[in-house]
Amino acid sequence: MLEILLTVTFGIASLLLLLLLFSRRRREGEPPLIKGWIPFLGKALEFRNDSYQFLQQLQKCHGDVFTVLIAGKYMTFVMNPLLYPAVIKQGKQLDFHEFSDAAASTTFGYPAVRTGRFPGLSDKIQRSFLLLQGFALNSLTLTMMGNLQLVLQQDFLSSHEVGSVCDWREEGLYEFCERVMFEATFLTLYGRPTHTNSDVHAHFHRERWIDALRDNFRKFDAVFPLLIARIPIGLLGRTKSIREQLIRFFHPQRMAEWTSPSEFIQARKDIFQQYDTLKDLDKAAHHFGILWASVGNTIPACFWCLYHLLSSPQAFSVVREEIMGLFGEKEPESVLSRDILTREQLEKLIYLESAINESLRLSSISMNIRVVQEDFCLRLNPHSSVCVRKGDIVALYPQSTHLDPDIYPNPQQYQFDRFVDNGKVKTEFYKGNQKVRYYHMPFGSGATMCPGRFFAINELKQFLCITLLMCDMQLNAGQQHATMDKSRAGLGIMPPANLISFRYRVKKNSI
Ligand code: HEM
After folding, report:
1. In this structure, what are the phi and psi dihedrals at residue 42, rounded to the nearest 5 degrees?
2. Tell me: the pLDDT tens digits for 305-326?
3. Model pLDDT for residues 447-474, shown as the tens digit of each residue
4. Mapping DSSP to helix (H, G, I), strand (E, B) and coil, where does residue 10 land?
5. What is the model's pTM?
6. Domains and CATH numbers, the chain
7. Integer Cα distance of 400 and 431 in angstroms
8. Is the CB of 398 under 6 A from ligand 1?
9. Is 177 in the pocket of ligand 1 (CB under 6 A)?
10. Is 394 in the pocket of ligand 1 (CB under 6 A)?
11. Which of 156, 173, 462 is nearest to 300 (CA)?
12. How far apart are CA 243 and CA 290, in angstroms?
């Protein structure tokens, strides 16, 4: 027995020694290297526990740039926003698609796009993103406005079953945002499945297909961080079959029958049609991926925007006044229609936009990732550069900028008008006496920046305008403050960790 024990102990000790001897060492010109003592995992657990505190601590000890071993990957973090431009502009040696393409295809279940099987597909997909912006955004905005009102009206009418339409209803604030935004965004992008009916009164007589879709989506989204971390889907309980159901929902034969899809989705359907190498379910998986991109961050963003407004009477009243100002003498409730609040009008709402940007600043924990294509030295500024190795990752962690007290005094505090200066949108922020170019990055940066960002900001504005116009709303008294669920750190807007309930009722003339 003792012999076996000694052999095992000796075996483990030799393995650790070997790993130690052959593991990576810092070379001249490279940033400080932090590997931890657990082979392969490195500092993965500390990073996962509280990435912000962990990175802050490392920055204090090692300076603005350092490399950390996290789950087998050497990640070089650039923590000072004044150095970000060096990374963002460096296109050739720092690739931004390698990581996201691989992660997206395994997560959503379609074959990798950038291979010889699909020549030109990636570029065509990138070009289709232009249909979320510019002129195409006008019709998206119009359709979204109609759908938001439709979904809310359905919602109020369903409360009519149990009482008067104008009675108070109580619900989780997150659930409310999720219900409304999921359906309104789906209808706006994908159009209307044929078995549904746009008449609000038909609501009671039809199957709530959207509830089933949203339920599956929620289950999938709960394991999303594990899928992105490349945990095989087979190890994640029922996730595989849930993903299959979600993908099947977007089968091209079904989608062919949906009416009035957006230009964006129509263009993507046309692109996929050009590729015989894409199977029907591959096409469906691509459409499903866009569903996640379009609501995965927007729903928690809606939650934080509304939560902060309802928690801050001053913010609420300034923003409400600003919205009411668009209607002059008219009662806003009485003019509700698809055409109210055009894109130009929404652009004028600078306090509302500031309140939204402030909520995003506080709730966004994303990471901008680039993969190093060859060993080279990255010039950070005229005085310094760091050497990185092929296959390593260079990462920006914008939360450290969003919470930097030099840039944003009292950074943990919600200040709805932080992004307004003298009645104009504020775009100049400083660290010390240097202007910071990348001070607000919930949508990423440079070439990988979210292509849906203009649509997203518009949607958030529309959601807030319409709920403020149509409803009276109050947070329930005596609740704890909302905190963030940091288990999704690195992936975008954090959802709340605790249940926040509120009550709302429809205003008299709104339906
Ligand atoms: C508040 C809401 C949103 C936030 C915070 C957000 C944030 C982001 C971020 C951080 C990225 C990755 C950028 C990078 O890698 O540097 C991204 C990518 C993306 N987003 Fe958004 N997004 C939002 C809403 C939307 C909406 C409404 C759409 C509409 C379809 C959308 C479509 C996309 C797509 C397609 C990509 C991938 C782009 C690519 O592969 O090149 N997003 N988003």
Report:
1. 60, -120
2. 999 999 999 999 999 999 999 8
3. 889 999 999 999 999 999 999 988 999 9
4. helix
5. 0.92
6. 123-366+398-510 (1.10.630.10)
7. 13
8. no
9. no
10. no
11. 173
12. 14
